């Protein structure tokens, strides 16, 4: 019975044309008016990703720190950068998918991925606003205000590390506030939250500060028991730590000159 009701609500959400408008319209604007001037960070990320030949090799400056440095940001040619651990590998894998189609540069493809992530983030923001009781029209207008605000629009059309984790965090918040109105199992909420917020931290480490906030919202809006919130916090910490240690071990960082 509960599964049937959940499927009914899911179908109703997909029939909500306002939801499609909340993210399809911004996506079309982002793609029709692409960025022409990229920041130096965007160019650095593109150069890093395009220079990767092996995901599990040490960067040159660790393999031989006394070798003559190649020009222009050579010291930053890090595949698994600790500030945004999986962003460069994600871009590398995307580029490998696109290479058979003759695409050898990642700047615009990854900017397009950011556009999709930012637009879809507005879609989940619209659903979140509906969960807190806003009328569909007000929720749509507010989602568009977010989509076309300066900061959101700026990062939606460039190659930066923020758009994908923002999507994951807005999605996670929507799940928490939606859970307040549903009777599904508590662990059915905890597991995807661990995955989403953990991936957000792996895409950019600053999102580690959102993890305790999500844990607090689980208690006050998700209405879970405190031990469920503790499971979420410990699970997210273990997930992130495991990926960091695995990346360090696989690339040899644990035995490199940087980790004596």
Summarize this, please?
This protein is 65% helix and 0% strand. It has helices at residues 2-14, 17-32, 40-51, 60-63, 87-98, 107-131, 136-147, 150-156, 163-179, 187-203, 211-220, 226-250. The termini are far apart.
Describe this structure in words.
The chain is an all-alpha fold. It has one domain (2-255). It has helices spanning 2-14, 17-32, 40-51, 60-63, 87-98, 107-131, 136-147, 150-156, 163-179, 187-203, 211-220, 226-250. Helix 3 (40-51) packs across helix 5 (87-98) and helix 6 (107-131) crosses helix 8. The chain is flat.
Give me some keywords for this one:
260 residues; mainly alpha; 12 helices; flat
Secondary structure: elements and pairs:
Layout: H1 2-14, H2 17-32, H3 40-51, H4 60-63, H5 87-98, H6 107-131, H7 136-147, H8 150-156, H9 163-179, H10 187-203, H11 211-220, H12 226-250
Helix content: 55-70%
Number of helices: 12
Unreliable stretches covering 5 or more consecutive residues = 61-77
Q: Judging from the principal axes of the Cα atoms, what is the shape? A: flat
Please identify the structural class as seen in this structure: mainly alpha
Q: How can the largest sheet be summarized?
A: none
DSSP strand tally: 0
Rg (CA only): 20 Å
What percentage of the residues does DSSP assign to strands (E)? under 5%
Number of domains: 1
Q: How far apart lie the N and C ends?
A: 58 Å
Write the H/E string, N to C.
HHHHHHHHHHHH
What's the pLDDT, averaged over the residues?
A: 83
